[in-house]
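Researcher: Let's run the pair from yesterday's discussion. Sequence first, then tokens, for each.
Model: Starting with the first of the pair.
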Amino acid sequence: MSIELNDPALPTPRWHTLSVDEALDNLHSDADRGISNQEVSNRLAKYGANELIEKAGRSPLQIFIDQFTNIMLIMLMAVAVVSAILDIRDREFPKDAIAITVIVLLNGILGYAQESNAEKALAALKRLSSPRVKVVRGGNIIEVNGKELVPGDVMFLEAGVQVAADGRLLEAQNLQIRESALTGEAESVNKNPNLTLELDASLGDRHNCVYQGTEVIQGRAKVLVTKTGMQTELGKIATLIQDVETDDTPLQQRMTQLGNVLVSGSLILVALVVGIGMLNKGNFADLLKTSLSMAVAVVPEGLPAVVTVTLALGTQRMVKRHALIRRLPAVETLGSVTTICSDKTGTLTQNKMVVQNIRTAQHSLKITGEGYAPTGKFLSDTSAIEVQNFPEVQQLLMSCIFCNDAILQQKDGEWIIIGDPTEGALLVLSGKGGCDAAEWQHRMPRYAEVPFSSERKRMSVLVQGEMGGYVMFCKGSPELTLECCTHIQIGDQVRAIAADQRQQVLEQNNQLAADGLRVLGFAYRNIANLPENGITEADESNLTWVGLVGMFDAPRPEVREAVKQCRQAGIRPVMITGDHQLTAKAIAENLGIAQAGDRVITGKELELMDAQALDQAVIDVSVYARVSPEHKLRIVQSLQRQHQFVAMTGDGVNDAPALKQADIGIAMGITGTDVSKEASDMILLDDNFATIVAATEEGRVVYTNIRRFIKYILGSNIGEVITIAVAPFIGLTVPLIPLQILWMNLVTDGLPALALAVEPAEPNVMKRPPFDPRESIFARGMGSYMIRVGIILAVITICLMVWSESYTTSNFDGIYKPERWTTMVFTTLCLAQMGHAIAIRSNTQLMIELNPMTNPYVWGSVIMTTVLQLLLIYVEPLRNFFGTHLISPTELAVCVGFSSLMFVWIELEKLVIRWWAWKGQR
């Protein structure tokens, strides 16, 4: 008989509350025989394979089709169709329609290239979920694929294997499991099958259970499989990843808004031109051609390409600063971030345990140094001491060396640990004290040991004494190790331990723990003769207490400054970790993320909070401890409901849902799992929190430059539209054909816009709050600027148009040659935009005040575009294709003169702005 996997009477969190016998009874399994092959088949049919199920997404074809739902592209496609019909009617080659179609297709392909990056987070999760595993079925031990596991199977674990399903421990010998990818905790976890835990025990505290995707570090175990597939903790993460709906970035939202405004505006203008023209009994075909030209002029065809190239250039600059962008819009998104939610382990900290304090009967010492390099000082108050002059400290270092299975070695100039990081930190401590671990372990070889167990919380080893006899060294939980001690070492003397001395040790332990340190106690005992059967737990008595060691997963040294810069830039850092609340609080205060007395919310508290309570808490709380993946996701969502623009950093599998939900997910490149990387928008190549600050600066620069060239492009487009719209009302033909407008929008606008995209950062870019990510693309005076500049450009061009039409008619025997004066209009518009590009580099500084070498690309683009424009006039094949006409040097000089007025106007505006600011300060 099998049970229902989703039985509401037995939800997933309750397996850790059951005893071994209760768990076996609930799944109708046997610890020695497992379940029968027939039962395996039944359960496999009922519950499905032990694998993660992917929801169907958009097909590549659907992604490509979706590119053409953009409202601006739809309008261009309509223009292409109407233009082709008119050209075919007039028996002309439809070059305008072909050019527009090509541009539409290129834009579609460009958008497809950005979106078609397949979501690989689930694929990375799947790689964690299907190892080979040993199970017992029907009394026989066999090896099966992880996908074939079912609830009720009994599987075997040993060092080095990956756990293939969630399960309740039945038996375990010295079992340690690394769960950092799932829980975020750096240390491996000691497991104990004999525990029954409280219902509200967090995932990281369920020491009687194991979870899919984690790794066995040492020991072996027999496990009852309780959950498989999407019901596992890993499956929950997969569900969370797939359920997260990704919103458009601020830039995408602004571009959509821009498209809606432009298309709506152009349709209104087209309706006005056609309506008024028809009332004046104008020719419908001519009015339609005017409307087509206006429609093409309104749409900034080159803008998507310029934005994409700008973002791509931003990604290249970010790579140089050790940040890899996986999705282009994330470049600009970084500039809008208001809150950074960071994991602790490996992100804010080095993921390297470092001893910071030791306590003996007489001494309280601080230890300096960073990482695993065995260089540092022992400080008493502020004075360095020589360890050799302090016998009890020397004895403590001996205990660190011998009660240790780790190896400290140097590789490629870097110190690394092989083995448990905690034990590695003890070797580093001994190295700082001048003790060579390898030399001492050779001089005093180990004979026997009692390994660490979660019940005793101690480890003991027996080594040969240097002066004869043997020494047993013991390390472990300070409270439990102290219980085995009858003596205490003070200086070079060993005395019976008094009650007040015991109390002093316990108080020292509490002080170190309150500082967020992991504390170990050390003791030893001299033994005259080697026990016949080695040492046992019974020999862990009559020990001599030596002292305490407090260690810390130290913060990265550069993070404190990075946090300070974040606050200067109006960005709030928040720590979200699976680690203990005291440790999280201590590190947060050390880094400046939190202040003394600030509230810390734990996962248990968060479970009891509804959405409204959490929304109120996230405004002030900057530290969250003992949290699960669902908690991280809730925190990010709550911050977003408070209109915060959230970046989430992380490296574990447990971070993936929150990384995907966040406005920008930031994964660690070195320590990060494949799952976190695939769910992220950006990867830190150096795992350095400070790199986020550099990347944020680049994001702000990119957004500023995007606004700059949008002002440039749309100001020019508005001028074109007004010029085309006014021409019929003053009795002139449309001065520009669609092909010429496309040239201006793609080349005359496009090349200078790309040059403006690499304008260097403003001096105060990281000393101001982020701009509101919900602000309109036209905010902060940008809309009024574009309209104002567009009107000025149109006035200049219309004046030139009126003069040139009269000039060419009167100077060429009265023969009306519209292609000549329209070429002058075309040239004036293009050259005026060159002046605009030079002047728009700064909103306040005059061109003569700017160093031309800070952005030589602007000058290069202006020269190149001017040359290309002249080629359209003076090279016959190009002249014929673009419908231009030869103009004389005098006429060209007139075009240059009129177009220079655009530059003069913008420079005068800057002077007015300065005068107004000066007047306001008086």
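Model: Moving on to the second of the pair.
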Amino acid sequence: MKFKGFFILLFFVLINSNAQEKNTPTSFLQKQYQASRITEAPKIDGFLTDEVWQGVPSTSDFVMVEPGDGVPIRKTHETFVKVAYDDDAVYFAAVMMEPEAGKTIVQMNQRDNLGQAEFFLIDINTYNDGENQTRFIVTAAGTLADARMTGESEDYLYNLVWEAEVSQDEKAWYAEIKIPYAALRFPKKTEQLWGIQFARNITHLNEQYVWNYINKSIGKASQYIGLLTGINSISPPVRLSFYPYTSFEVDNYKSSTQTNFNAGLDFKYGISDAFTLDATLVPDFGQTAFDNVELNLTPFEQEFGENRAFFTEGTELFTKGNLFYSRRIGDAPIGFNAAQRDILNDEIVIENPENANLFNALKISGRTERDLGIGFFNAITQETQAVYRDTITGQTRTRVTEPWANYNIVVLDQQFNNNSFISLINTNVTRNGNFRDGNVSAFLFDIFTPSNDFNFAGQATMSNVNVPVQNITGFASNFEVKRTKGNIRYGVEHQFANETYDINDLGINFTNNYNNFFWETSYQIFEPKGNYNQYRIRLYGNHLRRYIPNLTTGTGIGGNFFAFTTTRFAFGGFLEVNSQFKDFFEPRKEGAYVTYPKNIAGDIWVSSDYRKRFAYDSRVGYQHYIDNPQERFSLNINPRFRFNDKFTLIYSFDYVNSKNRNSFVSQLPGDVLFGLRNMESIENSIQGTYNFDTKQGVKLSFRNFWSAATFLENNFSVLKEEGKLVSTTISPTRDPNANFNIWNFDLSYRWQFAPGSEAILLYRNSIFNLDNENELSYFESLDALLQGPLRQNISLRIVYYLDYNNVRNIFKS
């Protein structure tokens, strides 16, 4: 009751603070610019010769944000911006003076990939709340990029339909931009008051300037935004757009060729001036990128990134609190492994789908004038069945491995004071029939003091898992206090979860039953000092405990360092010392733990100047266990070659060698068998792009990952009380050694043939192998892999953008 009362009191305090005057950082002078109404739209061609621009006043006086702090822009590189609007769109004209035109870096890239190109940036906050912005960028090569901003986080998968063109002469480079109102959400008011920020990145000088000054040592950059006034009597248009698609693919594997044709539709609809409905009907994810699968011998599942645009674009509300792991939707059926084990005598499995099919999905999100964000997400997956055949009678039977399932998320997010929020989130998974269901509710807060000196953040989460005849409730929380102003900063944090906390129906959580404490302090600079544009020194520590039983699992202290020089060379590293660690998860047995010895770990890394044709990143790490032969070594090398402004190639080499680690082997009657394991991994990957222009290009993606795990002979042990391992003569009943090798190759051609519309031609091949041939070297394993069956796939996907307003105007005319 006391805990509940605390959060109720906090809720009313925050709501009351929202009614007060909005918080602004100290030393903050807000610029204003009045946009001009025009009657004839300019031609968007990058040449600012239209007569309409002659009568529009310009604004300038940009100041440095990187590497310095507030230094006026060089007179030789003055930047001028004009803003105009009509009933359909808002228009921008920008002049970026450059006395040495040949030095402007004009690297060609596809959408949302800036590379090293110089660029002009616009941030628009139509609700002027200091937190939610839409970012528009055009590079000197004409590449477009856009992102949804929440504070300082950027979502570049948020794609809008807008126009921009550039041109260049011996004095400057120029940008001309048109942003239709259909690309923005704004309130229905007679007079609009928008937050606005302009920025210019001069890559060859290693400098970035902004129109409205940003104090980097206090608060967040999104708070330091100017005002755009003068936009009157405009109406939000009908925001309705369709993305019909069609795809065709041919797949060949083991001399069997299959073809598949698919068609579907995504659409967006502006329910109101603030809220948008996004939906995908009959989705097709055939051209999503390969997952970076590895040999996973840990007690936890491998976490993958999301490659499906629908689940990454505009999901900033749904990802609050880290309760949404979108890969759960369309993941392996919950009965997949059980179906492989449920084989009767004389039966074989003839079908057991590895993924549940997504039927459809939608999301509704937006924010009211009072800064209340509301989000609703829903997805439905189809029933999945395993099919068995009796090899004697020929009869078949089926087993449901995943029923029809419904996934829901509801979010309420109240922002206030331009920098703080409180949120309520609920996620729910309901499966049809006698299967597991899950429900999770959370309360979050992130509050800055009025002077932006301190930040208080926390979360309380309640989980409920419903399995047949049982309801399991769990709880987790975290709370942190941080100093957020000045060169010296510090903070403390507490994390807690009881033994029944489980959010894995729609989220991802590896551990529970902990009671952990963390602290840190750091010193950093915000203006250049000597040879450094930036550097930060940080010290940190942790004390890890088990909740039930109440005991220490580990303690550690460490420090790290980061530096960025005036020549754009970066380097850093970390060093930490850890006590003995009680691992309750490696044994895979409730209540049991294995003790790992004290260790010292660290790494160092360097990163060279990406503006040069040849650049590189490299990192080397080492972990030494005290009075124990266990050790771990890692090496990463990433050279990159920019052959010209169109062609870039990046190679990555990763090597990891872990020796003499006591690792889980198998469960025994009453005991857990461990063995000394050596594990070696090598990963080679290549990323290459060739861009014909900013609308079409070719992309190459290649990855080969090899890993071998070897358990040393006659070095097995059984786990006893207090985490001790006792040598045994027992040998495992199955070979625990593993040889894993995977090869993925993608070659694609992408053509944006109209705004919002594109065609993608993709060729890919892949090979996979997992066996016990651990004695094979990397090259021997690769040779064996290449002898295996090759899966080849070629597909064509075409997406066309249709805007309701354009279609209506065509029919009117």
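Researcher: Give me one sentence on the second I can quote.
Model: Residues 96 and 707 are 51 Å apart (CA to CA).
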